[in-house]
Specification:
The complex is a heterodimer of chains A (310) and B (345). Chain A has a single domain (25-202, 229-309), classed as MetI-like (MetI-like fold). Chain A has 14 helices and 4 strands. Chain A has helices at residues 2-5, 14-17, 21-47, 64-70, 85-117, 121-132, 139-150, 155-162, 176-201, 204-212, 217-246, 249-253, 262-271, 277-309; strands at residues 49-51, 57-61, 71-72, 82-83. A two-stranded antiparallel ribbon of chain A has the order 1-2. Chain A has a two-stranded antiparallel sheet with strand order 3-4. Chain B has 345 residues and is of the alpha/beta class. Chain B is 41% helix and 17% strand. In chain B, β1 (26-32), α2 (38-48) and β2 (51-57) form a beta-alpha-beta unit. Chain B is globular. The termini of chain B are far apart. The chains are: A mainly alpha (310), B alpha/beta (345). The A-B interface holds A 53-56, 75-77, 86, 89-90, 148, 151-153, 173-174, 252-253, 256-260, 268, 270-276 and B 59, 61-62, 64-65, 68-69, 87, 91, 166-169, 188, 191-192, 195, 202, 205-209, 212, 219-221, 330, 333-335, 337-342, 344-345.
């Protein structure tokens, strides 16, 4: 992903900082090791431990958490095991929601980023500033505001009725559409900013050259602009998709918390009545694995594409 | 040598004294959200010179999780509900105190001294008690609301407009009262009936939310809301035309309690705070704010008139008594956890 954000970078600085490099890297290595690797290792270990009643773990090896995820033994636990669909459904629903939110962000975010990148340099900063301003407000407050806007008796419905566009309020709150809207609104800048960074570096002389060679506007976009800014698009998609996948604020507040999402399922294991830490850790590990696989497929395709390009 | 020793002892005594004074300067509370007026905390600070910090939680279970995940030793007192006090005693999370440590212990109403979840009150004092039932918007529905059918078999005009608490214990107990089956039952037919009822009723529910329980009623997003009685009174005061129901099948009763936590860093401050809350004036201040009912003697005349006559705090004469949530054993609890997961799948 770093490569996607920074294609062809690096290399030049190593000469100057050569001797110091190890030391300069130390702080970030310590931070990554302590705040990223250590928690992940803890999660992995916890997922293989025995659950203690009402939260906590007993230090005995157990596969119960993964078993619970995969097998359904009926409400009373004595039927022959079948495949458990509950958790797969929850995962699939979350992936689907995150995918739709990502597509929404892309559809709105790409033209926005293109628009900003093609403004004169002086006004670009103003536009970027405008994109980021709403994100100075806490995510929780933005999500609650969204709820007030879209509810049945909210301003949006009232205006639409007042202007005669609709007769009865559009029911959006507590539906999947509300969740997707919330995710879209929460993570839009994560799409706009990387795409902007790519388009800004794009040499528009290439588009002109394509047009001179009688390429249509559509062909220019598809064959010249898009392949060049693709790393930015992919980075944006990953930055929106991954946090959307684990989100629980939008599903809880806008979706009415009627169905578990991955995020709320995991939260319930630690904060809710279930108090099943190993299962929460196992669900997190499975989520992590899914995300890693997606990223690895992308990385492999990317390197193949580069090989072909050479 | 002797003088040196004396000096050393004096120095040690001084160090201990200053240490004690420093420890007594602070109090760390772990409390429910919107449950104590800031003025009361300020009053405590100005009376005792103790500096108060407070964190809040939104469910008994999340409080337990925080304490078990390393929160012990950082808080002095917490405010768990009845069944959670029992769980915390079983988990060894609470410290004990002697009656003599609390000057105002005798202010506790007799009925709340020897409670089942903490016999003889060795770890806790009463904070507030009340009920969990539901409120109905009277603009939307004018029929009989004193039945749990409103939640589990709602009339046509209320379908899809119901908010339930996002709380396993309270949702499942209401369903058990509706079906007339006992808590912690392991009877398979009863559990299947419970599961089927919840699955069917869920189709009529709009949302689950505890911290939003009041707001959805005030904003009109929900026409029916499962809610605590004091929170329902607040919603009514904020302009919702709602009526709180005491259904004939029964409702949830609860009592929140201030408990002394094990490894409390400021035990002396905690005892002072508990004593403070047992004074009728201060207990009344909490009740006037939270609109539930206090477990302390002499509070009633100090309440606002509106609260003394509030329909939420005064059940009708023919209402059944409320039912406290029971603590099930591990195996049984696992069955109810599974029912809850199936409900929210």
């Amino acid at each position: 992903m770093a490569g996607a954000l920074n294609p062809g970078g690096g290399g030049a600085a190593s000469g100057v900082f050569g001797a110091l490099r190890g030391w300069l890297l130390a702080p970030s290595l310590i931070v990554i090791g302590f705040f990223l690797l250590a928690p992940v290792c803890m999660m992995l270990i916890y997922s293989f431990l025995t659950k203690d009643f009402r939260g906590g773990v007993i230090w005995e090896f157990s596969l119960a958490a993964y078993d619970q995820f995969i097998f359904d033994r009926g409400l009373f636990g004595d039927e022959p095991p079948k495949i458990e669909w509950i958790y797969i459904t929850i995962f699939w629903r979350s992936i689907w929601q995150a995918a739709i939110a990502t597509i929404l962000c892309l559809v709105i975010g790409f033209p926005t980023a293109y628009f900003i990148a093609t403004r004169p340099a002086a006004t670009r900063t103003v536009w970027l500033f405008l994109v980021t301003i709403p994100y100075w407000v806490n995510l929780l407050i933005r999500t609650v505001s969204m709820k007030f806007l879209i509810r049945d008796t909210g301003p949006l419905n009232e205006w639409l009725i007042q202007f005669g566009v609709i007769d009865t309020p559009i029911h959006v709150i507590n539906t999947n559409i509300a969740v997707q809207l919330g995710l879209f609104y929460s993570y839009l800048p994560f799409m706009v900013l990387p795409i902007y960074a790519s388009v800004e570096r794009y040499n528009f002389a290439l588009s002109e050259a394509a047009r001179d060679l009688y390429a249509s506007r559509w062909t220019t976009l598809r064959e010249v602009l898009l392949p060049t800014v693709k790393p930015g698009i992919v980075a944006g998609c990953i930055l929106v998709f991954v946090p959307s996948l684990g989100a629980f604020l939008a599903p809880d507040l806008l979706g009415g918390a009627k169905t578990f999402m991955i995020g709320s399922l995991i939260e319930e294991q630690f904060k809710g009545n279930a108090g099943n830490w190993p299962f929460g850790a196992a669900a997190s590990m499975i989520l992590l694995t899914v995300v890693l696989i997606v990223l690895m497929i992308y990385a492999r395709q990317q390197s193949r594409a580069e090989e072909r390009g050479h | 040598m002797k003088t040196l020793l004396k000096l050393g002892v004096a120095g040690l005594a001084l160090a201990l004294a200053s240490g004690a004074a420093q420890a007594a300067d602070k109090l760390s509370i772990y409390h429910w959200f919107e449950y104590i007026p800031q003025e009361l905390l300020d009053k405590f600070s100005s009376e005792t010179g103790i500096e108060v910090t407070m964190d809040t939680f939104d469910s008994n279970e999340s409080m337990l999780a925080t304490l078990k995940a390393g929160g012990m030793g950082s808080y002095d007192v917490a405010v768990p509900g009845d069944y959670m006090v029992e769980i915390m005693i079983n988990e060894g999370l609470l410290d004990t105190f002697e009656r003599s440590e609390l000057q105002n212990f005798d202010n506790i109403q007799d009925q709340w001294v020897d409670v089942s979840f903490d016999p003889g009150r060795r770890h806790s004092i009463p904070y507030q008690w009340g009920s969990t039932s539901f409120a109905v918007n009277r603009d939307m529905f004018s029929g009989n609301i004193r039945t749990t059918d409103i939640l589990f078999n709602p009339p046509e005009e209320l379908r899809g407009k119901i908010n339930m608490l996002d709380s396993q214990g309270e949702v499942i107990l209401m369903a058990q009262l509706h079906l007339g089956i006992p808590q912690c039952s392991t009877d398979r037919d009863q559990l299947r009936a419970l599961d089927a009822l919840l699955q069917e009723a869920k189709a009529h529910w709009a949302s689950f939310g505890s911290d939003t329980a009041k707001d959805v009623l005030v904003s009109g997003d929900a026409a029916v809301g499962q809610i605590w009685n004091g929170f329902s009174a607040k919603a009514r005061e904020e302009g919702a035309n709602i009526e709180y129901s005491y259904p004939a099948q029964g409702y949830v009763a609860w009592m929140d309690n201030v408990v002394l936590l094990r490894d409390a860093p400021n035990r002396a401050s905690a005892i002072k705070f508990m004593d403070f809350l047992l004074e009728a004036d201060n207990a009344a201040a909490v009740t006037n704010f939270a609109q539930y009912t206090s477990g302390v003697e002499g509070v009633t005349p100090l309440l606002t008139e509106a609260l003394q006559n509030s329909p939420e705090a005064n059940p009708p004469a023919d209402a059944p008594t409320g039912t406290f949530i029971a603590v099930c054993d591990e195996e049984t609890q696992a069955l109810y956890d599974a029912v809850w997961t199936r409900l929210k799948k």
